[in-house]
Amino acid sequence: MGAQDTLPVAAAFTETVNAYFKGADPSKCIVKITGEMVLSFPAGITRHFANNPSPAALTFRVINFSRLEHVLPNPQLLCCDNTQNDANTKEFWVNMPNLMTHLKKVSEQKPQATYYNVDMLKYQVSAQGIQSTPLNLAVNWRCEPASTDLRIDYKYNTDAMTTAVALNNVQFLVPIDGGVTKLQAVLPPAVWNAEQQRILWKIPDISQKSENGGVGSLLARFQLSEGPSKPSPLVVQFTSEGSTLSGCDIELVGAGYRFSLIKKRFAAGKYLADN
To answer: How far is CA 256 from the centre of its chain?
Structure first.
């Protein structure tokens, strides 16, 4: 990295969607989406800064900023202009002396690291209820003294994402009490953990390309010795790469730096559905 080179920087947006679904009523769905934006610097940048103690200021613009709420820039490292007219983009610049001090400290703590991640922004995404959830859920229990029928309906929702990406490693986990003695009519196949008394469905990915465009149902009947069961929340997990729920993007302003990579991903946090 010579003095004239543009320095490579990577950015990553990581978002977590928390959702609670109640029965089949979409108006009762509660959603909270949080996110963070991290910049990554190659380890060699500390040498560059040592040789160039007054580097160009790193300035960037966050696009679709109006979709965000409760934005917390890193107070040690970021400054922003609050007089900007355009609500949809927001410009930030990095306090370079503080960044150089921070990276020097990290390089001394982690001499083996090839790059250094630095938290820049934490935020919440303004959510529109069930429309903001990438996987809509409805769960139905029928609890009799001798048996429990469980039905889970799910629907992949492209409207929640900027780019329609697959949900990966999707897991549906439900505890079933009441002394389960036998499983019947389990569709698609699932894993029953007798010790923990819970059933787990695993679907490698759900997307528009899935059967029925990502709309499906999970069914099971449980024979009981100590029924009836008491309905428990369904817990769902998934991850996703290549898109965010906020639609946020980033671009550099001014010279001296270039983005080597911009990563976007989101995952389920507390993602629950009740009867």
So the answer is: 31
For the chain, helix (H) and strand (E) counts, in that order, are 2, 17
Q: Is the dihedral of CA 252, 255, 256, 259 positive or negative?
A: positive
Whether this prediction's pTM lies above 0.85 is answered by yes
CA-closest candidate to residue 250, choices 6, 11, 34: 11
Question: Reduced to 3 states, what is the DSSP secondary structure of residue 98?
Answer: helix
Dihedral of CA 16/21/24/25: which sign?
negative
Structure tokens at 207: 């997307």
Q: How far apart are CA 131 and CA 12, in angstroms?
A: 24
Residue whose structure tokens are 């695993």: 202
Domain architecture of the chain: domains with CATH: 7-128+245-273 (2.60.40), 135-235 (2.60.40.1170)
Q: What is the pLDDT of residues 197-230, one digit of tens each?
A: 999 999 999 999 999 999 999 999 999 999 999 9
